[in-house]
Amino acid sequence: MSIDRRTFLKVLGTGGAVVAASCADRERADRLDAADDGALRDADLTWDKAPCRFCGTGCGVEVGVKDGRVMAVRGDVASPVNRGLLCVKGYHLPAFLAGDDRLTHPLRRHPDGREERISWDEALDLVAAEYTRVLAESGPEAVGVYGSGQWTVHDGYAASKWVKGGMRSNNLDPNARLCMASAVTGFMTQFQSDEPMGCYEDFEAGDDFVLWGNNMAEMHPVLFSRILESKRLRPGVRIVDVGTRRTPTSDWADLYVEIRPGSDLALANGILHLLVANGAVDRAFVEENVVFRRGVEDLDEIGYGCYGEQAERYGFKDRARESSFEELRGFLADYTPQRTAELTGVPAAQVRALAEIYGERNRGTVSLWCMGVNQHVRGTWMNNLITDLHLLTGKIGRPGANPFSLTGQPSACGTAREVGTLSNRLPADMVVTNPEHRAKAEEIWGLPAGTINPVPGYHTMDMFRAFARGDLKTLWVQTTNPWVSLPNLHRFERKPGDGRFLVVSDVYPTPTTAVADLVLPAAAWIEREGVFGNSERRTQHWNRMVEPPGEAREDAWQIIEVARRMGMGHLFPWDGDWHEPMYEEYRRFTLGVGKDLASYAELRETRGMIWPVVDGQETRYRYAAGHDPYVEKSEGVHFYKAKGYGEKAAFWLRPYQPPAEEPDDEYPFWLSTGRILEHWHTGSMTRRVRQLHQAAPRAYVELNRADAAQLSVKEGDLVRLVSRRGEMELPARVDGRGKPPRGSVFVPFFDESKRINELTLDAMDNISKEPDFKKCAVRVEKA
Questions:
Q1: What is residue 11's three-state secondary structure?
Q2: Residues contacting 427, CB < 8 A, separation 6+
Q3: Which tens digits make up the pLDDT trace of 533-557?
């Protein structure tokens, strides 16, 4: 990519203000720099590299520090991710560190609500005593830790080692369960290894980009800018936006495909039907590289993962049998363009157009998806079907032709997925249910054989249900805000002193710290040393550049100190600075198995490296001959991680099934939730940035203009949303940047004063255990 800011703004044009806001800030900054270049030199800033703290893109930034304070931030032109560009959140990174209400000292909250400042020794002793007591009285099933895709690799590895190796509990799960779990199970069920095989260079190499439920212009604007630049340089590049509402991404699409919520399974099968019917199948590729599988499809049997047996944590059941291409042909027979149009609302002509795009052999197709696919009661299935489109056409494992899931958190890949901080996992794709995997972890951790519990722990939804009913008695939450982000929030209401013990480590006060018995102040971003892993498998390191405020400490340090107080210091034997030796121990899990991470020394000297890293060389395209050192073939692909499938990829037959909840006479509207450009997740950091808060100070509800007229609602009027779980009043937004179709509304979830997840449904994928934030039924009334 070769793009300057002037070109970028020209590409975006006057209609792209929502995306261009980021670059406008950079333009202003550059003008100031040019006018006062001497002042900057006089300031004598010390510059160092870091990945951005926000989404999973992993943009590189340079941070300028003077006298122990962050004075400036700029896009890192040496970063292969963003080449100097940042989005509006990235340009305001320093401000999120400096909010007036930073947590700076440990606080104990008494049952009467009184807060008491205590010392770190008192706080750590208290946490250690609570875990020790509960372990002795109730066993490992009664303790848990809830982490985050915002954890550094060190945080996640320390937590995993302490919980799984020290306390013999697998009740460890991250908030990535709420966003990326379906992508994990999608990759695992098809390749028996997690994470995409492509990289960001696909944005320059691809010809067609199909975005499935993915408002990339707002959620991943720097990456979207790379696609737009490819389109400017090569006008034949096409962008397809498949969504349930028009967004800023739709404005740049060559084809906008509007689907009914929850009908994407039918659309994907309709495309597959035409690929088979039209002979657009790469039969040679399929015969050499693909096996066919079919799972249980009985809706009464598999349900929606809501309650009882359907919500059990024991494993990720997907009972299956072998299938065949001939069975696939019959399976797809009903998904004609006409039938697909009936199920999805997508015109048959658009279904045919999508099939032509995927079927054109001389054009590279990249499928991109994020929460619209993953936060889905059949999220694993939909992940499978998107990859199926690439397996059937052979458009996989080569530059510009790959299925590519995008992540929303800075280390959802590097920590939650690669370190394995999910309740059934260990590092490097290993699982607690496999005795060989447990033995390897016990050997690396220096533990007696049989230490690691073979039974998966509570996944996120069951973890908080267990905590609410008292089965889980002690829980530590770090770097996340579940009392805003969990669905059906009323289930989890509690008060300190209710017989359970909740510890929360965070940077700012949140609704989660408000219900905690003990609040611990956390160091943020460059206030501590760390490693993140981004969406393209790039592992990035940064140094500590400034001191944290007050007594704030990094999350991994907090865990280590508690473990030592519990007599588990042998898990963390390092004296002095433990960052490098801890990472290098963790790295042992990854070497020689196709997950090889770069050394700590290599990470220090680079802008990150894409794994597997072998002999100092990163791998941009996994499974691809000529790119991946684990592939010995001279051409083509080799899915060498899929041992259970004969080292071939699994093509899954996955039918359409309706959503768990649909509009009816009482609740006639669809409600969908998500993010917006200015704010990140629950807003606990970005709302402390004045410019971002002023740009979007409060939540709202997007309404279709016709629905607004029927309800006699105009812009700014209060609207009441009512679901089966709760109700809320919000100001109306009509014809804003997002435009839902008739019968649909959208609400962002960044506003802690308007917790829209009080209304959302906690039905979930029965394989990944990821809940569905993207569709539930509501009634809409003028307030």
A1: helix
A2: 157, 160, 418, 419, 420, 441, 586, 589, 590
A3: 999 999 999 999 999 999 999 999 9
Report yes or no: 225 and 3 within 8 Å, Cβ to Cβ: yes
Token pair recorded at residue 491: 């289930």
* Cα–Cα distance measured from residue 367 to residue 473, given in angstroms and rounded to the nearest whole number: 43
Two tokens, residue 734:
């009509």
Q: How far apart are CA 269 and CA 652, in angstroms?
A: 11
CB-CB neighbours of 188 under 10 Å: 25
- Characterise 719 by phi-psi region: left (phi > 0), alpha (psi -120 to 50), beta (else): beta
Alpha-carbon distance of 554 to 505, in angstroms, equals 9
Average pLDDT score over residue span 515-524: 98
What's the chain's average pLDDT?
93
3-state secondary structure of 54: coil
> Look-up: residue for tokens 């805000």?
481
Q: How many Å apart are CA 712 and CA 593, to the nearest integer?
A: 61
178 strand-pairing partners: none
Q: What is the DSSP string of 287-326?
A: HHHEEEEEE---HHHHTTS-SGGGG--S-----EEE--HH
Could you write out the three-class secondary structure of 471-492?
CCCEEEEECCCHHHHCCCHHHH
End-to-end CA distance of the chain: 50
645 is written with which tokens?
């499938």
How far apart, in whole angstroms, are the C-alpha atoms of residue 525 and residue 598? 21
**Residues with catalytic function:** 89, 179-180, 371, 408-409
Distance between CA 74 and CA 82 in Å, rounded? 11
Rounded Cα–Cα distance for residues 506 and 523 (Å) = 8
H or E stretch covering 748: strand 744-748
Coil, helix or strand at residue 740: coil
DSSP class per residue in 573-630: ---S--HHHHHHHHHTTTTTTT-PPPPHHHHHHSS-EESS-BTTB--SSTTBTTT-TT
- Give, for 90, the enclosing helix (H) or strand (E): helix 88-91
Q: How confident is the model over 228-284, as pLDDT tens digits?
A: 999 999 999 999 999 999 999 999 999 999 999 999 999 999 999 999 999 999 999
In angstroms, the CA 393 to CA 282 distance is 5
E strands of 370-432, at which residues? 402-405
Is 130 within 8 Å of 145 (Cβ atoms)? no
What is the distance of C-alpha 80 from the center of its chain?
21
What is the C-alpha R_g of the chain?
Answer: 25
372 vs 83: CA distance, rounded Å: 28
> What residues contact 301, with CB distance under 8 A and at least 6 apart?
none
3-class SS of residue 463: helix
Q: How far is CA 538 from the centre of its chain?
A: 15
Q: What residues pair up with 729 in beta bridges, in sequence order?
A: 720
Helix ranges, 411-503 (H)? 435-445, 460-469, 482-485
478: which strand partners?
Answer: 505
User: Residue 622 half-sphere exposure, CB side, CA atoms within 13 Å?
Assistant: 28
- Supply 298's token pair: 């009985």
